[in-house]
Amino acid sequence: MQRQKLLYKGKAKSVYETDDNDFLILHFRDDTSALDGKRIEQLARKGEVNNRFNAFIMQKLADAGIETHFEKQLSSDEVLVKRLDMFPLECVVRNFAAGSLVRRLGLEEGLALTPSTFELFYKDDALGDPMVNESLAVTLDWATEAQMEKMQELSHQVNDVLKALFDAGDLMLVDFKLEFGVFHDRIVLGDEFSPDGCRIWDKKTKKKLDKDRFRQSLGDVIEGYEEVAKRIGVPLN
């Protein structure tokens, strides 16, 4: 399947049409952004690492019975995916307090959240991706009530699968964001799952091994991503 017209260029990925209207090609670039895209840098190997990481995670989720848009890896930095009608929402699952939750509520970073929480954000860079609730999403016709219930159910299923995977690598899956879309009337997991969209800490030292290394100028960003990948068995070659 050949890459054709550029459909969309996001912060870290470019989306291309193919000769089949049901499928798209995602190109993982080396771009890294923070502050809603106001700070952008190029980090060598990032596109390749995230592409391989995402392919590995999507396959693990598919093996667990969770349908994703992932079809196959095409190259070191490209993947073939189903073309979804995306919801303008980010679903966030939190297992430990970090990031905006700590800032909003004054919680101690690393506080265990039992049971895990589910939060919803409206995807709009100009507005800073504001937090919303399921009722507002339904009222504004971003999703139906049944679709919201399904996305929350799937988000917790993803969490159950991945918490165990990361725990086996002596890692804490602190939180993560997911995006969903519709493919032939089915709600399917889309976008990507990589250290760009989640928080992952070393279980013993609490060392941050995710995009917070970039946000907080901790250095060795890609080295952190690669360490996580190796611990959970992602093939990087």
UniProtKB/TrEMBL annotation:
Pfam families found in the cross-reference section: SAICAR_synt
Instruction: Recall the GO molecular function terms of this protein's record.
Output: ATP binding; phosphoribosylaminoimidazolesuccinocarboxamide synthase activity
Describe which pathway this protein belongs to, using the record's wording.
Answer: Purine metabolism; IMP biosynthesis via de novo pathway; 5-amino-1-(5-phospho-D-ribosyl)imidazole-4-carboxamide from 5-amino-1-(5-phospho-D-ribosyl)imidazole-4-carboxylate: step 1/2
Residue intervals of the SAICAR synthetase/ADE2 N-terminal domain: 6-231
Superkingdom of the source species: Bacteria
User: Keywords on this record?
Assistant: ATP-binding, Ligase, Nucleotide-binding, Purine biosynthesis
* Class of this enzyme: ligase
Record's GO cellular component terms: cytosol
What are the EC numbers?
Answer: 6.3.2.6
- A biological process term (GO) from this entry: 'de novo' IMP biosynthetic process
Q: Which reaction does it catalyse?
A: 5-amino-1-(5-phospho-D-ribosyl)imidazole-4-carboxylate + L-aspartate + ATP = (2S)-2-[5-amino-1-(5-phospho-beta-D-ribosyl)imidazole-4-carboxamido]succinate + ADP + phosphate + 2 H(+)
Database matches in CDD domains: SAICAR_synt_PurC (cd01415)
Q: Which InterPro entries match?
A: SAICAR_synt/ADE2_N, SAICAR_synt_PurC, SAICAR_synth, SAICAR_synthetase, SAICAR_synthetase_CS
Mark the transmembrane ranges: none
- Output the SUPFAM superfamilies linked to this UniProt entry: SAICAR synthase-like (SSF56104)
- Similarity comment text for this entry: Belongs to the SAICAR synthetase family.
Write down what this protein is called: Phosphoribosylaminoimidazole-succinocarboxamide synthase
| Source organism | Psychrobacter frigidicola
Q: Gene encoding this chain? A: purC
